[in-house]
Amino acid sequence: MSAVAAPAAVMVPAPRLSADDGGAVDVLPGLYVPEARQWLSTTSGRVAPEGYSWMQAVHWVAGSGLYEPRRHRSHGPRSFGTTTVFIAQMLAELSPCRPGLAYLMRRTGLSERAVEYHLAMLREAGLLAYVVRGTRVRGEQAQASEFAWTIPTEFDVALGIRTAGDGTERRMTGMAEAGRVLMARLAKKASRRVRRPRSKPPSKSPSKSPSKAARGGADGASGTAVSGGSRCTPMGGGADGSSTAGATYSPPESKLASGASKSPTPKKSKAKAGRRTLNRVGRRYQLARELTEELDWLRGCSVPRIAWVARHIADAGWSTTDVHAWLAFRGEAARVRRASGLLATLLKDAEKILDTPEKRQLAREQWRAGQEAARRERIQQVRARHERFEGDWQPPTSRAVQQQVDAAFAAVREVASGRTRFDADPGQALPDLPDGVASLDEAEIAQARAEAAQRLALGDTDVIEDAVAAMGPELAEQLYGRTLLRRARQLAAGSRSTLMTFGCR
């Protein structure tokens, strides 16, 4: 039997009759939900109203021992332990409960396969049910699964909970007297935070093994507590409920609370644990971990490697904001081949240049100002795009009408800027040339061609394009000549290509 599942008999209330019970509570069978009933539409449990009530059911399953994973598979975790409860605690904070594997891997430090194992254990125990199952299609972004917090029927039977309603929408209306004490203790467990479990090496001292075995047999508990609270109760999170086993003994709560019973394990001060100061190596690793989480091009890098690269700035007291400000000053590469090497190059002599807190504060202020300016520019671009494409006016679909509209807008822009074609008066229409350019003298034609050639040298083809749209290709060719017209068409075609840039050498 696993360490957390040791007090299984204690978690099931004794079969006693109550005034509002119809009969005795039987010992529950093993807890297991097949894959076909792990959906919200097929589950037999009820949906938990909030994460707090759901965590009570999670702690009950962890301490009851009714669910044993190795009964149904030959691989994966051996028991419903602290890690599974820790993952369930993170799921209880999500609304809607739609966690991604990458999020759980980052929070727990586990591998993808381990996270999938623990999620499968929560579904098999009847604590989770699929609402929408995630998809993984090659070439597309993976979609995370959405779950519903469910409370198994065995939990209601064990605590004598009465419900009203049908299906998953059942709600709690009452409880038997035998389960009230156990529910109160489960509420205390659900209100405490479960810390991230850490693997501990096995003890090499042979003299400590008999004492641990004796304590495990006497208290009916394990060496790993389900809830990370105080150890004034027997190790294992407290033997909740009354035991039906004759050989199991638990001291009364009054003695445990007053400290009359001394635990052989020395207590740890919570104040010292919360105020632990990081040493120099710890600060390096802390900065490296924050950088790998905040910088996209450092994702997936080895934290020890980044800690060694950033050791100088970490020893100088730099924060992640200081690193952001320095990288904005130095500049970042668009394509990164070796992230740790690039970081080492960018951070070279950074602690010597920004060697005082005042300099780092000035760099942070400049970086924040640049971020604010970029944010405002993005807002203006989005606003302009929305005003352009989401306004009441819709552009015409006909190509001929579009050319006329473009010509009208071009004429309005020229009048507004004080420039008119062929030196016409502002507000006058374009001259009508029914006989081609015969009505213009050579000086006007030469002036128009010189102006068009000067604008083409700057990459501006609006003059010739407007002439083609207004007069037609034949008259525009007679006015500007075939060479300028062909050059304008080449520049217009090149402006739509990403391989050509105007205005730069």
Number of domains: 3
User: Could you list the spans in which at least 5 consecutive residues all have pLDDT below 50?
Assistant: 1-26, 205-251, 253-263, 420-434
Number of E-type strands: 5
Helix and strand pattern: HEHHHHEEHEEHHHHHHHHHHHHHHHH
Terminus-to-terminus distance = 76 Å
- Total count of helical runs of at least 4 residues: 22
Major sheet description:
3 strands, antiparallel
Look at the helices and sheets and give the structural class.
mainly alpha
Strand content: under 5%
Can you give the mean pLDDT? 75
Q: Give the helix level as a range of percent.
A: 40-55%
What is the approximate shape?
elongated
Q: State Rg.
A: 37 Å
Briefly summarize what is shown:
This protein is mainly alpha-helical. The protein is built from 22 helices and five strands. The chain folds into three domains: 8-191, no CATH class; 278-394, no CATH class; 399-495, no CATH class.
What does this structure look like?
- This protein has helices at residues 8-11, 51-64, 82-91, 101-108, 112-124, 153-159, 180-191, 208-219, 253-258, 270-274, 280-294, 303-309, 311-315, 320-330, 339-346, 350-353, 357-389, 399-417, 442-457, 462-471, 473-480, 482-495, and strands spanning 46-47, 128-132, 146-151, 161-164, 171-175.
- The chain has 505 residues and is mainly α.
- It has 3 domains: 8-191, no CATH class; 278-394, no CATH class; 399-495, no CATH class.
- The strands form 2 sheets. A 3-stranded antiparallel β-sheet has the order 1-3-2. It has a two-stranded antiparallel ribbon with strand order 4-5.
- Strand 4 and strand 5 (171-175) form a beta hairpin.
- The longest helix is centred in the last third of the chain and has 33 residues, at 357-389.
- The radius of gyration is 37 Å and the shape is elongated.
- The chain starts with 7 loop residues before the first helix and ends in a 10-residue tail after the last helix.
- Mean pLDDT is 75; it is low at 1-26, 205-251, 253-263 and 420-434.
